[in-house]
Write a structure and sequence with these properties.
Elements: H1 2-13, H2 63-68, E1 73-76, E2 88-92, E3 95-98, H3 100-119, E4 124-127, H4 134-143, E5 147-149, H5 161-164, E6 174-177, H6 189-196, E7 201-205, E8 216-219, H7 225-250
Parallel strand pairs: 4-5, 4-6, 6-7, 7-8
Antiparallel strand pairs: 1-3, 2-3
Helix pairs in contact: 3-7, 4-7
Length: about 250
Amino acid sequence: MVQSMAQLQLLRRLKPQNLCSANKFSSVPKQESAQIDTEPAGNPVTNPLDHPDLFDVKSLFTLQDLFKARVHLGHKDGLLDSYMKPYLHGIRQRQTVIDLEQTVPRLQLALNFAAHIAYRDGIILLVNRTSQFSQLVERTATECGEYAHTREWQGGCFTNAWIQFGPGTRLPDLLVFLHTLEDAFVQHRGVRDAAKMNIPSIGIVDSNADPRLITYPIPGNDDSPAAMELYCRLFKTAILRGKERRKAEEKV
């Protein structure tokens, strides 16, 4: 707890500028019951982290939107990861059903964090290993001016970056895993590497995934085309809102 508070204080002292991976933190914007900021985007705020929803990400979706996109549908109970049991609403005809009332606040928190990283000019990497959604993820990253990785993960990509890519290599400030598995049973190696390098991560965790190494796990279906399109749209919008606010304040 002492270390987390110290990291939060460090993050609050940073100005909206480039975030280097050396700035290792896993803190999140302070959650308060205070009124959401209503200042125009052009007016800079004293401390963005004092606002619980500076970018109004809560307005981007509703629980009904998640339900229509089939975010609540998990895998068969035989594939259930024991660490995902707290996020389940139940099991019906051997089909796991994810509790969307837990998904909503976790997704809002993740979107808010992604917007703050973009607001501070951080590098965001969208990761997906499912070939079915590779083009969707790459297109989303391009549209919001960020990066995507949809191929096989090279070992040491982060942990040995200074040797593989040269000194001064800048690592991402945030990883967004739209699929946290290599296949039905093996976790994506990028999840482990990000944890080793203390890089914050957001991950869509289905009922067969292990959420423990994800900084901001989001319980939800990671196989449905409708769900994937919804996730990509939400993260693209949140990232663009962060960038637009930064640009507006730079003009003041």
